[in-house]
Design a protein that fits this description.
The protein has 116 residues and is of the alpha+beta class. 15% of the residues lie in helices and 18% in strands. The N and C termini lie far apart (70 Å). Bound molecules: zinc ion. The site of zinc ion has 8 residues, from helix 1.
Amino acid sequence: MNDHKPICYQYNANRYCPVCAEDDFGRDSSGHITGVDSDGNEVTPLFSWDEWWEPGDATKQTLVCGNGGCELMLDSIDLRTDADRLADSQRAQPGDGWSENPSRFTTDLTGIRETL
Ligand SMILES: [Zn+2]
C-alpha cells in the first residue's frame, strides 16, 4: 500500500483538493483521479514533496484549493527570513474597515409584547 496520497491535483491552470478533483474527474478502476482538463493537459497529482511554492518569493505562501466554493487550505510554507518575520510582526495592522463596531449588532425586540 502506498500511503503517500497527493495533497492536490493540478488542472485548468490551477490546483484543487482531492475532493474537488474527484468531483470533477472521478476515480479510475485503480482508484486514481485521472483525466484531461479543458486545455488538453492531463490531471497531475501533486505530492507533499513536490515544489508547489515560488522559491524566489520570500513570503508566507499557502496552497489553497482553486475551487471558489471550497478554498480548502492544502499546505503552507513560510519562506521569510527571520528578519522578514520580525518586520512583519512589527508592522501596524492595516485599517481595512473590518473593525466595525460590534455593538451595532443588536436584537430588535420592540415588536414583541407580552400577551395574557
Ligand atoms: Zn476543494
